[in-house]
Amino acid sequence: MQLDQSDSVIKTESLLVELGGLPILREVSVAVGSGELTALMGGNGSGKTTLVRALLGLIPHQRGRIELFGTPLEKFRDWRRVGYVPQRGAVVIKQATVQEVVASGRSGHRRPFLPLSKADHSQIAAALDEVGLAERASSPFSELSGGQQQRVLIARALATGAELLVMDEPFAGVDLHVQDDLASLIGQLNAAGTTVLVVLHETGALGPLLTNSIVLREGRVVHTGAPPEHPTPHHDPAEASRPRLMTGIGEGVA
Amino acid sequence: MEIFTLVFIQRALIAAVLAGITSPAIGSYIVQRRLSLLGDGLGHVAIAGVGLALATGTAPLPMAVVVAILGAIVIELLRESGKASADVAMAILFYGGLATGVLLAGLVGQGTGNLGNYLFGSLLTVSPTDLWLILGLAVLVLAASIGLMPQLFAVCTDEGFAKVLGLRVRVYNLLIVVLAAITVTVSMRTVGLLMVSALMVVPVATANNLLVGFRKSFGLAMGLGVIAAVGGVVGSYYLNAAPGSLIVVLTIIGFIISVPLGNWLRSRRAAPVIETVDPEPLPHEATQPHPSHIHGPGCGHLALTHGDHTDYVHDGHRHAPHGDHYDEH
To answer: What's the complex ipTM?
Structure first.
């Protein structure tokens, strides 16, 4: 993890994040190198989602530093380099086509009062192609299956032209077969040069593709570097004994 | 059609068209953000403005605009704070607005009779000055809600994502409630402050039943809003009723019709896709034979794309065509 600053896409130093007065993350110093496929792991309540939200500036941090692409978060304006894929359960879109949802990934680039440009259209089409949903472009988002909705949210993040994808539990609530499909999609994107930070409950199908990992436990970093072979020591025994299908499903969306 | 030669009806009709266009336009964002009752609350707050104007003898419309915008800003700041007490604070603000309006109007002896024109709409109260102000405000609301559609859509569907896009989410959130406040006052003369929310929400819900996609349903909702508003004004002239009530009843009739119509349209659309494809093939099990019915596109059974073939949902089972019979899937 001794990365040169220019190489780090994400870097934190001694990060402290409090929610409602309680410290949720303490002394978190991590780095994500350019081109890596990093898993951010940990049990329920370990602070994975909080860390991701703090990294993206969605919640404030109380102490420490966050850098994105070598720029302190406070001064970072180059948001089109970052694609955020939130937990699917947190996104309820009542009335929109797949195309419209993916197109909203362009709204940070668009000038007000002007229609979609040619570049916007080609970026949207490319993003839909990449996740294999080009032929569902005019389908209603709300009627898609869980795995397809997850793909649409990935395409929406790709449509920004992002070099860094930050995904929060992409496998939550989808069955094992769909997890395999999503894992190979994430692997392809990473192979094509996209840096990926993915919050995972367990490595699952993504295990062999990971190049790096960060493991949190009760808000502290307990492991960085090579992905853990058996990512269960941080689970309490009751959780570890649950059948595999149950884990990763129904975790809070906070 | 001598009604259309009456100058006050002409003004009321123009005001109705403007209310019918703008209310569903901003309503589309409010419904997408699941704040359907926001318009109702803003209407209540605007009543305080009307009461203040009646008590001080100033023009009601500009005063309602100012008070509704201030109320909207307070509501958004309360909502953003995310505190549990914010919910109660909003309720107090809404009822406080209504009560203050009625009280102020009563103090100067205007009573609820005059106030009623603003609560339920009236054909007679649209003055030429009002009409110009309504036109200006409506143009503002339309320009923002159409011109900023991509940004507002992104903010309304997923605030976190919009923030990571670099959009100034707070500014857009504030813009939505302020536009809603302006829309409430635009529609005040026609629909009335107590029922204005219906014109913001019901045409949008109707359009959502009928069409797929935000842009299409946005356009249809505006069309439905205009039909209801104009129909309500014309009808209320003959019925001698408050136009607001008829407008709201018309929008709800439209909604009721859209429910079966929407179900029918949905059944004609492409089948939903399920992805639960287990790599292990299913054991072969034929269904109970049903020689009188052949499954196929449009056979009346819900069709599901299952891997490389189509299943039909039949009496709680999934029937997959296989040679001369159907398999259980």
So the answer is: 0.82
